[in-house]
Design the sequence.
């Protein structure tokens, strides 16, 4: 049972436009969410996180929005750049349960020049 | 400071053999997590160690095991290798438990089982 779902395996956007990557979760006890980016042949790198006490967190071109009632979060990249082309993973954890991190399957983003 | 290092970077084994992979976390990090990545399967969580204790475990068979030493370095062992074990094995370290903290990933060990 996939508790963290990234329903779009891939996404293609034009350079300069907005990229929106979505993530849905089923466990209402999740209280911390993270986004990681992965280039081919490299390990993932941390991008941005959000606690459930917030509904938005911003870091430069990257903003994460959390909608707890819909159990949905999204990552916005504005403006998108070709170097943003990578696989993006959403992950979530809950305060108990040793904070086990649950990962989505990833969305492959292609930013076209 | 130095990042997460994994050895070896590449490994070729045959079915039935066993393999041990090593991970050295960032200095001061006490949590080490292991992941398997195969095409189309995303990141599959294997286990997480914190202060030499396994804190979390994924849904992998008992052929996959790990341990963590007092210096936080970790090893992962796979016994009786199967063709399906061919994958990129990633190690990640964090200061606290992975679910509440940014993880730093190593470059991975590419395991090929023939």
Sequence:
């Amino acid at each position: 049972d996939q508790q963290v779902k990234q329903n779009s395996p891939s996404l293609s956007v034009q350079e300069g436009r907005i990229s929106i990557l979505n993530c849905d979760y089923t466990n209402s006890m999740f209280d911390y969410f993270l986004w990681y980016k992965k280039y081919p042949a490299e390990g993932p790198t941390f991008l941005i996180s959000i606690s459930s006490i917030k509904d938005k967190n911003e870091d430069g071109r990257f903003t994460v929005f959390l909608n707890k009632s819909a159990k949905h979060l999204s990552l916005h990249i504005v403006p998108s750049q070709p170097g943003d082309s990578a696989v993006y993973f959403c992950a979530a954890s809950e305060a108990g349960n040793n904070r086990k991190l649950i990962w989505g399957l990833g969305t492959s983003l292609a930013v076209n020049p | 400071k130095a990042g997460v290092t994994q050895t070896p970077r590449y490994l070729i084994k045959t079915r039935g053999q066993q393999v041990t992979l090593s991970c050295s976390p960032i200095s001061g990090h006490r949590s080490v997590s292991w992941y398997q990545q195969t095409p189309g399967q995303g990141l599959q969580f294997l286990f997480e160690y914190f202060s030499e204790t396994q804190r979390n475990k994924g849904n992998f068979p008992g052929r996959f095991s790990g341990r963590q030493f007092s210096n936080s370095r970790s090893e992962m062992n796979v016994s009786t290798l199967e063709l399906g074990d061919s994958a990129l094995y990633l190690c990640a370290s964090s200061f606290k438990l992975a679910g509440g903290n940014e993880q730093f990933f190593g470059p991975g060990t590419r395991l090929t089982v023939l």
